[in-house]
Amino acid sequence: MxxxxxxxxxxxxxxxxxxxxxxLYDRQSGITHIIAxxxxxxxxxxxxxxxxxxxxxxxxxxxxxxxxxxDGNSDSFEEIIAARLDEFVALGxxxxxxx
Amino acid sequence: MxxxxxxxxxxxxxxxxxxxxxxxxxxxxxxxxxxxxxxxVTVRPAIAQxxxxxxxxxxxxxxxxxxxxxxxxxxxxxxxxxxGSFHQDGRRYTANNIKQALSGGKSLxxxxxxxxxxxxxxxxxxxxxQSGFTCxxxxxYSR
Lengths: 99, 143
Fold this sequence. Notes:
Largest interface: A-B, 50 and 38 residues
Number of helices of chain B: 3
Low-confidence stretches of chain B: 8-20, 46-50
Largest sheet of chain B: 2 strands, antiparallel
Largest sheet of chain A: 3 strands, antiparallel
Number of strands of chain A: 7
Strand order of the largest sheet of chain B: 3-6
Oligomer: heterodimer
Strand content of chain B: 5-15%
Mean pLDDT of chain B: 75
């Protein structure tokens, strides 16, 4: 069973979309993160909830036409979403709820 | 400022796949990237430090815009027959190596002192859109 992820202190995060990337400011730490697709979309899909990467993938597929960045890239969308979430965890932005 | 975290669709956790409400973002293209392609660069105020993964980047000397050219001591790209210029073959130098060289510690790997200085001047002249610029920009913010 896949792990679930949850953003930490969502109310302390400010997400600002720019042209080609987004800025994520964490009021608590005073740290700004420059984030690229699909990271901001994952954060928005998660909101205040705890979700598995597969759930996030379903939400994103409802909202977007998803395409892989590189031809011949065999990573599944679920794997890519999990990798981005693990980045958030490493930065203290999200927590991983082991199941 | 946009405090817009928290997708209204996400109110009820999982069972929301049947929600057919109109979403202005619907059908926009989303670039998914790859597992190994990091999507986050962290800028810390005061100490202005990027996350470790950024320092794993590298910079080619020279990038594709300098193909077939030499590098002058001041870092400009010149024709290969220019006296005093240095040959370049597009070799990639790691951010760590460049950082150490910029701080005066050592030369770039495999380069003489003069050649290393010319290469560093080339790197200092990088502009947005040229290969290696993002890596160089991130070095500005790292300790």
